[in-house]
Amino acid sequence: MFKKIITISLTLGLLLGITISQVSVVQNPVIEVQAKDKIKLNVTSKTLYKGKSLTLKVSGTNKKVTWSSDKTSVATVTSKGKVTAKKVGIAYIYAKVSGKTLKCKITVKNQKIVVIDAGHQAKGNNAKEPIGPGAKEKKAKVTTGTTGKWTKKKESEINLAVAKKLQTELVKRGYKVIMVRTKQNVNISNKQRADIANKAKADVFIRLHCDGSSNPKISGAHTIAPTSKNKYVSKNVKTSSQKLAKSIINSFCKNTKAKNRSVSYRDDMSGINWCKVPVTIIEMGFMSNKQEDKKLATSAYQTKCAIGIANGIDNYFKK
Ligand SMILES: [Zn+2]
pLDDT tens digits for 208-228? Predict the structure, then answer.
């Protein structure tokens, strides 16, 4: 039996014109490559926000993995494969195992912060506050807002409903979201709302409102930004807020099909004048107009509003 195998092997070897030793040299690396191909990283490319972590795993082997990063200032990795994003940039994480080196590209980005202010609250506060830093002119801290002429809904409720939908949408898109309020029963002045955005170092501050008019025929949406002559906000806040206001009104109207009333430039809004960050107010529609009042009260239309605004925020950061 043993003799027979040797004879066959020799015969085969002779037939193929190669020796048995050559056969083994050719065969061994093939087997090894096949096994090595099964050794894989669970992730080979990933974008991480600064401060966030991700754990990499090697499958197809139970041998010890040695982890390293080519740029520890951008991303570090522990002996167990836990990657932490340190600063904006690109780093490669290497996993050495069984003589093989696997790599994962880590792109570190800054997560953008959006502060959302659902305009007004259940009950206004008529105590006064200056309309901006150093201003003599004073306005009510926060008003109650308008009411739907047909639905009888409070503007503050509609604003809050859209704010919550916008929060969900933005979190889904990777933004960090801070809400000025998540309920009706609060007492936060317009200056305090701006302070929340300033303290959060918001990349954008979005203030949600609805309009009211004595003329029921008026409909459509518009955004508000400071004028180029605004004396309360910095030059950078003026230009970025104007850019933000344009981006949001265009995306909003595109998604909701609301009439585009463009950007209004005003310097009498406390919640804008106290800002140290890019800010805009979106007036989503007229609650004094039958069609818009009814639309704004529906969850489906509120979702359209939120997605339109989110698109506008995305576009603002793209430009
Ligand atoms: Zn309002």
Answer: 999 999 999 999 999 999 999
